[in-house]
Amino acid sequence: MRSSATYLGIDIGSASLKLVELRSAAGVPELVTYGIAELPLAEPGSTRPSIEAIGDTLAALYKEMNASAKKCYSALSSDEIFTSIISLPKLKKKEFMPVVEEEAAKLLSRPVNEMVLDPQILEDASDTTTQRVLLVAAPKELVERYEAIFKRAKLELLGLETEGFALVRSLVGRDRVGVCVVDFGASTTDITVIADGTPYFNRSLTLGGRNLTLAMRDILGLSLEDAEQVKRDVGLQASEHGQPPDVLLKIIKPIAEEIRYTLQLFREQTGRNVEKIILSGGSAMLAGFAEYLETTLKMRTYIGDPWARVRYPLELKSLLELSASRYGVAVGLAMRPLKP
């Protein structure tokens, strides 16, 4: 029997806003509607658009996509939050948060009372005296900003989580092996190592597709629009000399090295290996990017498909495939309340 309850996943990126509405159909997530809207430029003296601008853009997209759900989930970017895995003694429920707060105070650069803490036990420690806990902490003013955006759009924000957990649902599913998800966005690249369905490591670089476009513009003397088109057409495909364009490699190489370092760190701390790299984000579609990482890091690398775990009309298949990498977080967020 098809459920009438639908939920929204809203991904607020640095350059665009993605909306996905899903419902559960016989236990399978089913697409209701989806859409994307470019965000306005940041206000003078700020690095991001105003609450009013984002809220109004979301409200307009909601109306344009003929969405019906009012309950939604959103995610905080890895570069906006603090995450760490801590080891705690096995505790009673009433003792858990005070001890977490005490440990957080040792790790955070800001007072605990200025942060929202979200600790999650990673594994059952019933046969030991310790347990590992994934500690996620976000500044209160950041959480309040998101709440204000959704209030402006007249939507009910049910929960916030890290982008990593959303990408686990949409791109990894029940796969228990070590996986590295690289979310290559417009302004940042987030690297998340996932094992046993849990994000273990998160690293963020302030390098993204926009850096590639600006580099092409400056080196080739093109307009921003033409530079974007050349980037899309040429990408990292080898020239007649057998190498990708140097101007792009200067930006891509640090990303590859950061991925390599993250994989090594995970191996040293857990004794486990990552078996594959899954790409997400709008810039993941850069021609030759997946092939470059696979060759450089000697690891299977491919662009993830968040729609693979979603039922949708067959006539939408080609359109969804074209934009698949941009919707990983939004799909994963909308999947959160749906029963598998």
UniProtKB/TrEMBL annotation:
By its UniProt entry, which Gene3D superfamilies does this protein fall under? 3.30.1490.300, 3.30.420.40
Superkingdom field: Bacteria
Q: Which Pfam families match?
A: PilM_2
Q: Which InterPro entries match?
A: ATPase_NBD, FtsA/MreB, PilM
Q: Give the protein's recorded name.
A: SHS2 domain-containing protein
Organism from which the protein derives: Candidatus Uhrbacteria bacterium CG10_big_fil_rev_8_21_14_0_10_48_11
Organism classification: Bacteria, Candidatus Uhriibacteriota
